[in-house]
Amino acid sequence: MTQDLATADSGPTRPRRGGRAAKRGNTGSFEQPPFRRLVNPFTPTRIVSEDELEAIHLASLRVLSEIGVEVLHDEARAIMKAHGADVRADTQRVHFDPALILEYVAHCPSEFEVHARNPAHNLHMGGNSLILAQMASAPNCSDLDRGRRPGNQEDFRNFIKLSQMHNIIQCQGGYPVEPIDIHPSIRHLECLRDIATLTDKAFHIYSLGRERNLDGLEIARIARGVSAEQFASEVSCFTIINTNSPLKLDIPMMEGIIHMSRHGQAVIVTPFTLAGAMAPVTIAGAVVEQNAEALAAIAFAQMVRKGAPVGYGGFTSNVDMRSGAPAFGTPEYMKAQLLGGQLARRYGIPYRSSNVCAANTVDAQAAYESTFSLWGVVQGGANMVKHAAGWLEGGLCCSYEKMMLDIDLLQMVAEFLQPLDLSEDALGVEAIRQVGPGGHFFGSPHTQARYKTAFYSPIISDWRNYETWAQAGSPTAIDHANRLWKERLAMYEPPPMEEAIRDELDAFVERRIREGGAPTDF
Amino acid sequence: MTQDLATADSGPTRPRRGGRAAKRGNTGSFEQPPFRRLVNPFTPTRIVSEDELEAIHLASLRVLSEIGVEVLHDEARAIMKAHGADVRADTQRVHFDPALILEYVAHCPSEFEVHARNPAHNLHMGGNSLILAQMASAPNCSDLDRGRRPGNQEDFRNFIKLSQMHNIIQCQGGYPVEPIDIHPSIRHLECLRDIATLTDKAFHIYSLGRERNLDGLEIARIARGVSAEQFASEVSCFTIINTNSPLKLDIPMMEGIIHMSRHGQAVIVTPFTLAGAMAPVTIAGAVVEQNAEALAAIAFAQMVRKGAPVGYGGFTSNVDMRSGAPAFGTPEYMKAQLLGGQLARRYGIPYRSSNVCAANTVDAQAAYESTFSLWGVVQGGANMVKHAAGWLEGGLCCSYEKMMLDIDLLQMVAEFLQPLDLSEDALGVEAIRQVGPGGHFFGSPHTQARYKTAFYSPIISDWRNYETWAQAGSPTAIDHANRLWKERLAMYEPPPMEEAIRDELDAFVERRIREGGAPTDF
């Protein structure tokens, strides 16, 4: 478990399949579907009727008007008061009239473009688009060779590189693992410089205080090479606002909303409403609370700037009632995913969900919890999937092997979303006529013309027969994933960046590091 | 791997959770959701438009009229001819006019009741009902202790017992594993007697020649203790008819349809149309062929007896184009599941799908392929899931551990299908008011009143934190499954059966064994 990566990767990389090996020419290339904007062709699955949805909506509005929300940030309360919220001098509790919430929520754009520094990696948020974002915020990482340990800069960079290389990971969702060897005061500078240079996809900025937001915005602007005016008119990055459930909005969150919205960047509000812990034990009740918190923060973003791009995040799940530990990918989680989607669409706001699990290793549990999550994503009509690749242990660990497993799962989901070919030739009547009863299609011209691209070719699934598989040492999915991430990481090549932009970026980051970065309380 | 079951099971059974242990009193009891008729509350997901569906339908009818089907059974061809099919003297090829197909398919009942010998286990087929049937027809079985080996009577009985004990497995789908220690001539007699006595749920009869069908029908009748007249008027068992794709209907299949339909029992026609092997390499083309074959056999059942209960089975999947091996739980499989469902509903016929995978062991692959299959089942609006528990290796192996994994997956899917509680109390506004901003719900009365039953409690998922899990030896899902099946199998108790019925059943089976059972060609 202490073998280092260089050693672990020093053996010959043996591609499992001739097809892929044959196509793999130069360094940096391997067989994968192209980068593409994903569109979910399916009508989202409704879990409640329109009347039932309205009951949840109205209950959330009652929570906001009768119970209210605690807002710890003075300027935010002042903004809310100036826009008509019930803010009193002697308390942080803010009450919102239902009509006020609805008035401001109505300003949310239903769709917007997300600009990456490489325009080929621009994305669309909302409608029936689906964006897949890399896992974020794990304190630990793990792989089969070196076991589980706190994250460092090398692991951070490895995950970033892997996400850049794989087309199915369409943007960064934050730091896949926290690099604890970088001091928190300058961590955001080092990490965002890495993200902005090692990848050319859109990314997330943490809302952890004013300085980090503003530094992140400037790094995103420089990386795109655009003016402040153009930057403010095009979404180029996003932040996740996790409310302090129940019903609290803290200072860094409010700072995040204020600065991101003022700069025209996306705010995705995601209450962390675990049923039975920070929210009612019923899924309906937890979603009522999720919805109330989301509406409060989203309305606030619109008070800061009408038309500010926002997302509606659903993260409601249940807990293990024996231990209080969060559970993910459960039936309750799926129900909350579908319900959250119906609510987000009711308000016309893009919907964010996640690919999550509670498993401790890349076993059957990790796979079924993640696949159930993706089921909820697709059928719930989610527009963005955070934590799409790498997530283990309820988010406490980013796993190299899980990342490869998730890449395969995401590629399969993306393939599921591709429209069926229903051309006359695809319907195959002539091919069936030619082969006739009792024949076979292996060698038919219809098959020969299509077989190389007819089906998605998975990267993890082992389809060898039992005997061949057993002779090969009975490798399981985690073994294949372990081989794959090392093979692929070794092929990483950084995306090009103009020298002037690189210089400007370095100058900014170095200056801010010299200035001490962001204040920390330790 | 050679440790025998008795030894493997001799240690104390240590339930992983206090909650279950506390509720587990007498032998034969463990915590599980009750036996219930499952209803899928979701609108099935459409993968093609009505126009596109019509194009597939019309292409299938062209196949049946222009290309035709080879029918190897003389009486069947005579029946087809008598009912208007184009049957010529010098060939086994039968052509069907589209109008003729539609005329007979219109006689199919859209829904019917399935009667078990225990009426509490009766099921409903069709509409938005969902029936889950045990895995069938594996030549091999496996468990972690004893490895993989050909099936025998003890394994066969173990799987039957496990399916009887678990409410989520609602009927038998055939022999979970073939007991090769029983001679084929009498295997059906021994196996069906076991199924009829060790379980009290409805079951499947193999269509492997006239004698086996008739023996199976008589065993089903005796087990229910009903007259031949009552038996013929109530569906009590079913048979799967796998056409010899492409476009061939062999003698045992035609015998099966004739005898099952004449006796009022259900015939579920399931073409085995692997895209790229026995069917066109395009999913649309493979489904055109599936649909043509299904319509031919279903129309034939209606020629045998108008109103005969039937099911429309979809089994279309892709193959590994490198090896020709079938793949399951793939994006292509899911697309075929959704498309098959749309076709079955177009004809108003109950739809059968499956829970299948190509994995060789109970790893992440087995879990994601199976969960993708179940996704297709639910969103495709399937009414019956064959191979719901135990399936590995594309059907070549029934695994004890996979069976437990699938039981958990099925129980989760069943929980997902339960309606949300949207009562005023469940919406939780008062609970949210009571806890207030920044509080927690663990100890609130709203939580206390509900926490024991609020969430589905999985049997495989390990939700302990990493440290506790690692201290316990880092067990993976397959380890939990291994412990579970042994714990549970040890609790098996046979369902009651009236002595007179048992005597009649034994007398029939013993007489048929003395007579030599069914003819075999070896």
From TrEMBL, chains A, B:
<dbReference type="Pfam" id="PF06253">
    <property type="entry name" value="MTTB"/>
</dbReference>
<feature type="compositionally biased region" description="Basic residues">
    <location>
        <begin position="14"/>
        <end position="23"/>
    </location>
</feature>
<protein>
    <recommendedName>
        <fullName>Methyltransferase</fullName>
        <ecNumber>2.1.1.-</ecNumber>
    </recommendedName>
</protein>
<dbReference type="GO" id="GO:0008168">
    <property type="term" value="F:methyltransferase activity"/>
</dbReference>
<comment type="similarity">
    <text>Belongs to the trimethylamine methyltransferase family.</text>
</comment>
<keyword id="KW-0489">Methyltransferase</keyword>
<feature type="region of interest" description="Disordered">
    <location>
        <begin position="1"/>
        <end position="35"/>
    </location>
</feature>
<keyword id="KW-0808">Transferase</keyword>
<dbReference type="InterPro" id="IPR038601">
    <property type="entry name" value="MttB-like_sf"/>
</dbReference>
<dbReference type="GO" id="GO:0032259">
    <property type="term" value="P:methylation"/>
</dbReference>
<dbReference type="InterPro" id="IPR010426">
    <property type="entry name" value="MTTB_MeTrfase"/>
</dbReference>
